[in-house]
Design brief:
By secondary structure, the chain is mainly α. About 80% of the residues lie in helices and about 0% in strands.
Length: about 30
Amino acid sequence: MDVVYLAALAALFGLVVAFAKGCARLTGGRA
C-alpha cells in the first residue's frame, strides 16, 4: 500500500473516532 493512502486512512479513522466521542458527550451516553 502507499504511505499516503495509509496516512489518509489513519486520519479519517481518527476523525470518525473524535466525531463519535463528540456525539456521545452531547447525548450524555457512552460510545
